[in-house]
């Protein structure tokens, strides 16, 4: 975050919209090393946090199956002569125990045409999205009338009018609510959406805003595609929706929330990597593109970006108390943890989410953050880092503070 002009009354122990934490000094004072108290408080220099997370919700379809049942079903769908043993090995390797599916398992089979599948997406996405939205509102003590902005994201289906537009009336939103639908950011969209909410609420600090992520990954599965990319996708991804409700620093609930403040965000595109992750879209629907080089790219470049982002705020990876890392897969988590020289427990919340519900694309980081918040807020001053990565290839980083 760039240095800011000293606000009026900054000599007070607390400045509206920011906390001057014990042992820190404003950026306009003479520089002084940032003290880090291990396992207790990570001390920040002077920053002006402008966004407070009030509530995070996650919801799932009712059709939950252990990984073994999904593996058996997908094995039956493969063309005659296919290597079912390979599919079974892939499913066993991704460390997923169970997943939720948009449809009953028996309704999956030879791929429908895109129009039929997308109609199923819209129907299920609206039901899940409304549940996630209403739950976040209830947890924050607000109603749909209190929302000034709704940002929605998905990469697993198409809707025009967009999902949040279709949900506006049935969820009680105001007719003048501002809407920002996103498509194409993929798994990175959860972290990107939080960063975008932060920027928008910085400009309108009196507002309340909601990020809605709805991902029905199972409806994109090409059941007869035997490519390694499709086998991995069929083993890894689950269905679900999440919502994050945040307010700006001038909102009446800003000081009352126990959730983290958003301190800063950073986006990064890596040139020449667009072919490594995304969709091949055609009459068949969405076909997964997944390059083998992704783990090495994460090791070499995302880890460096994390260190650079933290250094810009006088922090290092060991100073982060809560890692909210998108669970792109077990290998991604392993190589990033190793590259950052983190303990094996650093991404424990991400691994728990992956095992319980699979990779939820953009909704995963919301599920992980919600779990961290539900377990009890970290001590005041604790540092959190949300990481997402997706098509582009791109990384999204969000610095949090409790």
What does this protein structure show overall?
There is one protein chain. The protein is α+β, with helices and mostly antiparallel strands. It folds into three domains: 1-48, no CATH class; 55-248, Thiolase/Chalcone synthase (Peroxisomal Thiolase, Chain A, domain 1), CATH 3.40.47.10; 261-401, Peroxisomal Thiolase, Chain A, domain 1 (3-Layer(aba) Sandwich). It is built from ten helices and 17 strands. The strands form five sheets. Strands 9-8-10-11-5-12-17-16-15 form a nine-stranded mixed β-sheet, with helices on both faces. Helix 1 (67-77) packs antiparallel against helix 2. It is globular and about 65 Å long. The model is unreliable at 1-47 (pLDDT under 50). Residues 117-245 form the Chalcone/stilbene synthase N-terminal domain.
Helix/strand layout:
Layout (H helix, E strand, L loop, with lengths): L13 E2 L2 E2 L16 E2 L3 E2 L8 E9 L3 E4 H11 L6 H10 L4 E4 L12 H27 L8 E6 L8 H8 L7 E6 L5 H15 L4 E9 L11 H9 L2 E10 L12 E9 L7 E6 L2 E6 L3 H18 L10 E4 L4 H10 L8 H10 L6 H11 L8 E8 L3 E8 L1
Parallel strand pairs: 8-9, 8-10, 15-16
Antiparallel strand pairs: 1-2, 3-4, 5-11, 5-12, 6-7, 10-11, 12-17, 13-14, 16-17
Helix pairs in contact: 1-2, 2-6, 3-4, 7-8, 9-10
